[in-house]
Amino acid sequence: MSIDEIKRYFDNRNLNQSVEILREKHGELREKIRQLQQLEESIGEKIEHLEHISKVSDSKEIDIREISEREIITFNRCAENEIDIYKKGYRICGVILQIVQIDISVTDKNEEAMFETQIPIKKH
């Protein structure tokens, strides 16, 4: 309680005012508990996510390759299939690479990941 709240209480003490103050403080306490529970849940999810990432990053199955510089073509929309690429006069000429990015300083939700697919192509 602030000093003003204490002064107000002692200036006009009665049962109704006591109940009103207790209800108000009880509501504030419940809100703080709710906020702390949300924070605890969020921190728990982040810990779980980071532990999962650390297990995945220890994997020996990650294949790192250096890819030489090459030209790319972009579409104003997603290519539905290889036919879209062929219609533009190109053909696939190598390994298709899919990159997934998750900025864990911003989010820990997999559904907020950004995907990029790189398709090496050559002009017919």
From TrEMBL:
<keyword id="KW-0175">Coiled coil</keyword>
<feature type="coiled-coil region">
    <location>
        <begin position="12"/>
        <end position="49"/>
    </location>
</feature>
<dbReference type="InterPro" id="IPR009061">
    <property type="entry name" value="DNA-bd_dom_put_sf"/>
</dbReference>
<protein>
    <submittedName>
        <fullName>Uncharacterized protein</fullName>
    </submittedName>
</protein>
